[in-house]
Specification:
- The chain is of the alpha/beta class and 258 residues long.
- It has one domain: Purple Acid Phosphatase, chain A, domain 2.
- It is built from five helices and twelve strands.
- The strands form two sheets. A six-stranded mixed β-sheet has the order 1-12-2-3-4-5, with helices on one face. It has a six-stranded mixed β-sheet with strand order 6-7-8-9-11-10, covered by helices on one side.
- The longest helix is centred in the N-terminal third of the chain and has 24 residues.
Length: 258
């Protein structure tokens, strides 16, 4: 009787935990963060970026983005927009939703190559998404100051060529580097003057037991040569469960030190 009772309690606790993890994986969190840089061009005042990474199988709803309408200058998708088994129609619907916020940029993640990436490339281009595959995109103020969004292709498939992206960029510009994998920080120094790196890929460990997980939880890291944002990401891989690393997207206000 005692063994059956204990077994039953363990099963119930297990089920409750799985339900909690499933519920946490479905959260729709937007983290608002202000990042100030001494070299940010004053003529821009500020730039507001919506950063979302690792969407995988999730659907981006109108209700989710509604609080962001008219608050965002640009949208950046940090890779793993899709994975094997996700329809191109779902991808198109997600892109259409994100386009309501502003101009959309995209870098490739490892899971994006699980689908027909030529088809994905074509879909993104036809829907006005700017693909940053070892390239740079320039914004210039009336005062002649330049902000550039630089993106590298997927590191896991060894398609990243940061030196090509930097060749495409303008000397002296304020540079934001987008890489699916945060390990890109190992490939440049202070000399390249990349002020901010935004990345995902790790899911913040996705399932953390007593605070421990396969990867560090997402966050902002002030490094000697750059500032690094690693996002927990929006979706999940392998199993639709999270624990201790809730899904997150980011509303980043990038400005100068006042």
């Amino acid at each position: 009787m005692g063994i059956w009772y204990v077994g039953g309690v363990i099963i119930i606790i297990g089920l409750v935990l799985v339900l909690y993890m499933f519920k946490q994986a479905k959260e729709q969190n937007i983290i608002e963060q202000t990042l100030a840089f001494p070299d940010f061009p004053k003529s821009f005042d500020k730039v507001t970026v919506f950063f979302i990474s690792d969407i995988h199988r999730r659907t981006i709803t109108n209700d989710f983005i509604e609080p962001l309408l008219n608050k965002v200058d640009i949208v950046i998708i940090g890779g793993d927009l899709v994975e094997k088994g996700v329809s191109m129609q779902q991808v198109k619907d997600n892109i259409d939703t994100l386009k309501k916020l502003g101009l959309v940029f995209f870098v490739w993640g490892n899971n994006d190559y699980e689908v027909d990436y030529h088809e994905l490339d074509s879909l993104l281009l036809h829907n006005g998404v700017k693909i940053l595959d070892n390239t740079a995109f320039k914004f210039e103020s009336e005062a002649g100051d330049i902000i550039e969004i630089i993106g590298v292709d997927d590191m896991i498939h060894e398609r990243d060529q940061l030196e090509l992206a930097l060749q495409d960029a303008t000397p002296g510009s304020f540079k934001i580097l987008v890489s699916h994998d945060p390990k890109i920080i190992e490939k440049f120094s202070a000399e390249q003057k990349i002020s901010l790196v935004v990345s995902g890929h790790t899911h913040g460990g996705q399932i953390r037991i007593f605070g421990f997980g396969p990867h560090e939880r997402g966050g902002i890291h002030q490094l000697p040569h750059t500032t690094l944002l690693v996002s927990n990401g929006f979706g999940t891989s392998l199993i639709p469960l999270r624990l201790g690393a809730p899904p997150e997207t980011h509303l980043l206000t990038i400005t100068t030190h006042h």
